Hints:
Elements lengths: L4 H14 L3 E4 L6 E6 L4 H12 L2 E10 H4 L1 E10 L4 E10 L4 E3 L9 H11 L2 E3 L47 E6 L11 E7 L3 E7 L7 H5 L7 H6 L6 H16 L5 H28 L4 H22 L8 E2 L2 E2 L5 H26 L2 H7 L7 H7 L3 H5 L7 H4 L20 H25 L17 E7 L4 E9 L3 E8 L1 H12 L8 H8 L3 H5 L1
Parallel strand pairs: 2-5, 6-7
Antiparallel strand pairs: 1-2, 3-4, 4-5, 8-9, 9-10, 11-12, 13-14, 14-15
Helix pairs in contact: 8-9, 8-15, 8-17, 9-10, 10-15
Amino acid sequence: MNLLPELRTVLDELTQRFGSQIERAPAPQPNELYLHAKLELASALCSVFYKKYNARLAGVFAEDARAAHQVFFVYYLYALDAAHGFVLVRVPIPQDQPELASLTNAIPAVDWQEREIQDLFGIKLIGHPNPRRCVLHDDWPEVHPLRKDFDVRTQLPPFTGARHKFREVEGEGVFQVPVGPVHAGIIEPGHFLFSVAGEPVLYLQLRMFYVHKGTEKLFESLPISHGVRLAESLSGDSSFAHATAFCHAVERASGAEAPPRARALRTVCLELERLYNHVADIGAICTDVAFVTAHMHAMRLKERVLRVNEQLTGNRLLRGMAALGGVRFDFDASQLRELATFVDEFEREFTDLAELIRSHSGTRDRLETTGVLTPKAARDLGVVGIAGRASGFDHDLRRDFPHDFYDQVQFSVPVFTEGDVQRRLAMRREELFQSFGILRQVMAKLPEGPVRTEVGEVPPDRVALGYVEGWRGEIFHWVHTAPGNRLARCKVKDPSLQNWPALSEAILGNIIPDFPVVNKSFNLSYSGTDR
């Protein structure tokens, strides 16, 4: 397939520099460049992409290819936002010496992802600043669940090893305050250990992955057609976004393409998912600073969106709508009229809510300069989505890598640089106003025709990348197909996996009572992280 001209230039320059040490591999889209390289080139290629092309390392993951190639493969996914293209670099890891030189010292954004590879595949990290277990807790037995010789039905013995030992703190008047892993609300577990001197927080240690579900392993045991439902379960508040990213990957691997009307309806559903989550977060931030009136209005608006979701798709969280090759249900003329009326009414009511919050000096006083994530910290950690854009990180897959119907609509990507809770709230507010415009444009341009293309059996040994800008940030699904309409590998990356470490930076210097509102301003998914 012909490459985008910008990626063709990248390929020519890399070939000139590295010659036969790199090899181009087939890719399903013109905005994707797949390269095979030698292991020793991984660091050099990373340096070139960052320094010469201003790329960012959007993902690092591994695959057990010992049966066919006698190696493990590690993949580096680079996003070249200015060129609107992705470069996926594959390097082999010898099976008899499974070791990988860590990039975390140079690029902190890959810390947890590299440690995932070590935990799940048994590939030892060389030079990692903190090579402790990440996905698997310390009391797990010595197993590597994503190796092919690990049976998903394995019954592990009772866990009897040592529990996770947090770093000790020293100094007069310094003490630790544990929060979690079990919390008061109906949320999943995560352990936050604060080190404080008086009131200010000196250090925050995070421990996640209490409910690791082995989802990526489960994808390998299901027919591809069943994978859509599994993708929907990855993170309940992003069920449609995850399912759509999975469908994108499978469709690209098979060479199928969703019809124009289906792509438009996918865009509608993605924006409805953005609406109900953003307005709920705005309300939750307000309630964490005791502005309960604003919270009640926001919850009322969220309920309106959920009811519209149910009227359009039969499910309040849009589950069951996504399908391989398109969507399951079409919207008739009366539903589209009701949706248009809803958008107009919702915008008026949300404008009133936004003005109510904006005029409340007490809320503004609590949110401004609270939980600051500096642009430098955001860049170093690779923070994505609303949290990244509130700290000057100007990236949005809808604009930079248009998917579904986003190349047919006009919208702006709001960006702030202050990086505090106030700007993360403002990000949601401004994105909602953009969503109203997107929805109106899609309905005005809605094509006629079918809403689904038959995908059929997907050929084996195909690889493809699916991506969606979910309401929280960018979501990636990468698949490698196997015979029998199954998957040899499905890698999932939720934006929360990337963003959790930023919470430790944002809380520094704040007081513990401000942690709930700082945490809510990120609103990260435990389930999407744990998978």
